[in-house]
């Protein structure tokens, strides 16, 4: 029997697992998909929000501000790409400018530092902004993060510290008897003293397997454009319009990889698992983004994508035990800003709800850091040459668009966190993220995975079940 079973391997599950790995406890994570961070935690804006926006006094506000403060140290320990480049909420007319003071007041209540920036300084910071802009609210603690490595490296660290992970197992039923939870999956059945529900869009469904819940999760879709690395400094901070009841609005931002992201839209989606995009919504995203930054070169677009926010009917994160099952902890309705909040949620759940309940003892030794991941393209030439001398595979480029070497791919296949699919390799290393979207490197990644996993190339999956790329042998 496990001490704790965590259901769902997104960012929230990752930080619950990592925090639990500091204690003497047996922990098992169950994930339906074939990789960690394969649903909402990979399809978002990847902004480390400052926390000026959530309603003061809510769990969202608390976790956002606390999570934001944890990022610099955390990303150092987990070797995750992070830049604290600040955000600007831009007023495009006098009416909007007057509203910035209200936002600044809310920021003050949440304990978030801000500063009003007037036009002269604003255009120096962001020369490509609409010349009509009247000013902006600058939040220096906001930033950008690589959402893929954030979840993956947090899991790698948790696994290095003894947590177990089972991918490709969907939880289909949970029964409680005398304080023991039996969790049934598509492949087996497991027992635990406690269960943590980190199932994102499906968190209400999972909790309802144990007792009826009064809250619901609705999907609110967000659609995006991804642009290539066309120019350094096209935008420098994260640029937001003024927030509305629909959310934080359509932003224009660089990513930690130096390309650009524009979006997201905000529309209700009846199907929690529908991630399709549509031309009309994307045209609207384009129109709203160009109102703020008129010269966005959409010809540089290399991809569009969508994610679904797990919007709770309670309007706040649900982080609490079920009323009649104190051993079942819900982490439900973790919509935006859930990514930045996830380290604080993980800490709170473990330190306030799990450790006291199970009377857990901390380990004497716990390793907070992952072994460094080599990113050959970001190293100075001398360092590259040194590494290539040590291992010539760092000199063989597999992904030419994003400059990812064979050595980097091989390293990912030799870590505690399994890398089972083409998409998992893409998220870990960026091979396939560039202009050709895997046209050149995907066959090489596929063959490498087949060799490592000891399977036929026709069995290698792109991501989900039945997503094999090759149909069969032609000869
Ligand atoms: C458009 C958009 C923009 C966003 N922008 C930002 C942003 O800029 N900054 C920010 O901080 N936040 C942002 N967010 C929010 C953030 O992405 C989420 O809050 C966060 O990723 C939620 O993580 P999670 O672990 O709760 O959910 P998920 O990442 O969805 O993980 C849940 C996991 O549970 C698994 N699961 C579900 N059911 C089962 C089952 N039956 N059995 C086993 N496993 C199961 C799923 O497969 C999934 O892997 C955004 C979200 C969206 C959609």
Provide the fold topology:
Blueprint: E1 2-7, H1 11-20, E2 27-30, E3 47-48, H2 59-78, E4 82-83, E5 87-91, H3 94-109, E6 115-118, H4 119-125, E7 135-139, E8 143-145, H5 147-160, E9 164-166, E10 171-177, E11 180-185, E12 189-197, H6 203-207, E13 217-227, E14 238-240, E15 251-254, E16 260-263, E17 267-269, H7 279-292, E18 301-312, E19 318-322, E20 325-332, H8 338-358, H9 381-390, E21 397-399, E22 404-405, H10 406-412, H11 422-429, H12 442-453
Parallel strand pairs: 1-2, 1-12, 2-9, 5-14, 12-20
Antiparallel strand pairs: 3-8, 4-8, 5-7, 6-7, 10-11, 11-12, 13-16, 13-17, 13-18, 15-16, 19-20, 21-22
Helix pairs in contact: 1-5, 1-8, 2-8
The structure holds flavin-adenine dinucleotide.
Any descriptors?
475 residues; D-Amino Acid Oxidase, Chain A, domain 2; 22 strands; Arc Repressor Mutant, subunit A; single chain; 3 domains; FAD/NAD(P)-binding domain
Summed up, what is this model?
With 475 residues, this protein is an alpha+beta fold.
How confident overall, as mean pLDDT? 96
Count of domain modules: 3
Bound molecules: flavin-adenine dinucleotide
Helicity, as a percent range: 25-40%
Helix/strand/pairing class, anyone? alpha+beta
The N- and C-terminal alpha carbons lie at a distance of: 49 Å
Assigned CATH superfamily of the largest domain: FAD/NAD(P)-binding domain
| CATH architecture term of the largest domain | 3-Layer(bba) Sandwich
